[in-house]
Amino acid sequence: MQHVKIPQDRIGVLIGEGGETMREIEAEAEVRLDIDSENGSVAVDSVGDPVRGLKGPEIVRAIGRGFAPDDALTLLDDEMMMFDVVDIAAASRNANDMKRQKGRLIGEGGRTRELMEELSGASVVIYGSTLAVIGTPQQVDVVRTAAEMLLDGAPHGAVYSFLEDKHNELKHQGLRYHRFPGSGEEQV
Fold it and tell me: What's the whole-model pTM score?
């Protein structure tokens, strides 16, 4: 059994209307969730296939980091799918700096975050003091590198060029993409 702590305001999303989301996660990941809505603690106990059960805590963490339940459940699509988090606060000097860093990652009208998704094939969410990613190891690596470049002060243009280069590289390697809602490119 593993324990995952998620923000209070994400408990309702994890449970879903009438417990629907919680039951779907339990069925799909073959786990049992024991949610303490008082403190945001979630006990995840594997009750079926242990390999699928290992993804249970990651699904809960992903929802806690701002992903929609359907996007979090894509972690079960393929054993290579992974979840990663970039801590924006760790790269910031103070609250004002964190706000600025978060703005750099989001971009004007959300364009930078959208480009990270479109050009990497991963799903990206910025919530609280984190940027979270779901995708294959290569996709996650591309987004993490782009985010770290921005957090280190790289110009947006340089990051966009990096993302386009990596996009072309992944396409030429023939790596399989996953389709995420909102991504601009049809991915197979």
Answer: 0.87
